[in-house]
TrEMBL record:
This is PREDICTED: unnamed product. Residues 1-20 have a biased composition (Polar residues). It comes from the Eukaryota. It comes from Prunus dulcis (Almond). Residues 1-33 are annotated as: Disordered.
Length: 110
């Protein structure tokens, strides 16, 4: 089970967009819709840590997957090492993670 922190109880938008295409659909990129939906509802799972400071549990696993989605969408393919990524891109990724999860002290290590 995951623990959540809620900042307010707002309703989510109800608009929908449908795009029709007769060509064969590929797998597409994962967008973590569950995380995005909770983010819109302002529900943030609390990431738990063990005694050594390593993230544990379902919230940690989801956070790692979400970071992967963000990295694939924001980091250029030409960059090979995390140390070569510009700080502004890293900051954008951190802000998105911080809006979606309660990370806690020491969670921002870059």
């Amino acid at each position: 089970k995951m623990k959540f922190a809620s900042s307010s109880a707002e309703t989510e938008p109800t608009s929908q967009t449908t795009i029709s295409d007769d060509s064969k659909a590929g797998r597409g990129m994962s967008t973590m819709p569950r995380v995005v939906k909770r983010k819109l509802q302002k529900l943030r799972p609390i990431v738990e840590y063990n005694k050594r400071g390593k993230g544990i549990g379902q919230a940690h696993s989801e956070m790692q997957s979400y970071i992967g989605v963000l990295a694939r969408s924001k980091v250029p393919l030409v960059d090979k090492k995390w140390s070569q990524i510009p700080k502004d891109i890293k900051e954008q990724i951190w802000e998105a993670v911080d809006m979606a999860f309660v990370v806690g002290q020491g969670g921002k290590k870059y």
